[in-house]
């Protein structure tokens, strides 16, 4: 090796201080995730994380793959293929149980939120010439403030269920659109790069198009959450600047990408069983307005709910002020563009939900997450040195005298002198450092018991009631049936001999979020009837059905449900015939060849 070639540095050297800074940011975000999840586990949100009929979808999909069943799933409009399923597969690979995988996935969601906010904040600092120095520290701080705000809002939520005004906690689950929230934050970073003058715009536009395609393929709601707001924002920026190249490129990338993603969904028709009129209720605006109004009124009945609304309103106001002041001063200000996109997103999503007659609060997630992204960008872009200089320039020059012990001491002090401003700034930095240290210490103190709580919950069997069914079904070659809200948790946490199918109370197939292939050649031998409270307040009408089947072989009483055993009785044939015939009809309608 020659002397010249020996001096060539192939791998760029990253300062150890920066590595420690970035690692500390990730660790702190993970700690906040553990604290938020522990809070949810300790209260009414536990079922939402571990047992909810929708939350356990991905574990059921993985179990179906493991059992070698053909893919004949009946999905809602959301496919959860990007990035939810890959994230859950990673979580399931490094854990030993479903509960542990779901909880680890929740922590990963928070860490990824921090990472994506870090990318947004990094783009803002890189595109803001006045704050390039120490930009990494500013970006980490901004991302931590945004992630910390999310964690605090989660701690204010205490109500059960997934369709309430408390929607921040939904992000901790695997199937309440956390992946689309991630796509929204990632798209924000790419959009601000394109609109604020970033380099390599071709690569950024391609990345935005790819992201939009994958996100729309997985969840068409991306069109309302991202495509629409970006379209409006790009047009506004084009009008403000009277320059159209970058806005049009941004608009083209997101629209073309979303179009490709939606087109890729068309061949998946047999797997999408939801009807459009269930989601696009054009005549349901009044009902939608009443639904969201009721959710808001219930939310503010608690102190935590009122604080949550107050924080959200404050963040909205911060975004409005930031967009107006920054874009008026400089029309390509990166943080101002993030704030503008946040405002547009809030307005477009709110209007869009009302126009489509929405009756689900989870669709409003961008209304609370977009202002958090703007908060992270605002903190990262704050140039306290420039603020100090402006403060010094505006302070009047005064002379301050004082008398002590009857003697006059002549002297003067310039209140606006560089020394005074420097002392003021140093004092402010000490206060900020003290607050930051206090937050870190408080987080670490809270993270220790929170980690123990999350680990204990992950080590448990998830739904304790499933153990009774697991013990009873061991060695029995039979399939059971139950209603959706009863069967999901039992099937998820039951042993290898537990095989359950979800049906309506008339024994017809309920194909929602289940694999129709499991119904093929099934031998139905028992019915599970809920005896306790059903999650979400749902009701069952099984009494007449079970009575009509006749006298069972046995009835086993478990915690919250009964196992009504019809194996070996004349009712087993009637059970099997009713369920399999219904499944045959469903398969024919969806074009599956049985």
Task: Describe the protein's architecture and organization.
This protein has about 600 residues and is mainly alpha-helical. Helix content is about 60%, strand content about 5%. It contains 21 helices and 9 strands. It has a 5-stranded mixed sheet with strand order 5-4-7-9-8, with helices on both faces. Strands 1-6 form a two-stranded antiparallel ribbon. It has a two-stranded antiparallel ribbon with strand order 2-3. Helix 6 (about 100-125) runs parallel beside helix 8 (about 180-195) and helix 7 (about 135-155) packs antiparallel against helix 15. This is 4-amino-4-deoxy-L-arabinose transferase-like glycosyltransferase. Keywords: Membrane, Transmembrane, Transmembrane helix.
Helix content: 55-70%
Helix vs. strand class = mainly alpha
Number of spatially distinct domains: 2
Instruction: Give the number of DSSP strands.
Output: 9
Low-confidence stretches: 397-413
* Average of the residue pLDDT scores: 88
What kind of oligomer do you see? single chain
Query: Helix tally?
Result: 21
Percent strand equals: 5-15%
If strands are numbered along the chain, what order do they take across the biggest sheet? 5-4-7-9-8
Rg (CA only) = 28 Å
Helix and strand succession? HHHHEHHHHHHHHHHHHEEHHEHEEEHEEH
Q: Cα distance, first to last residue? A: 67 Å
Anisotropy-based shape:
globular
User: Major beta sheet, specifics?
Assistant: 5 strands, mixed
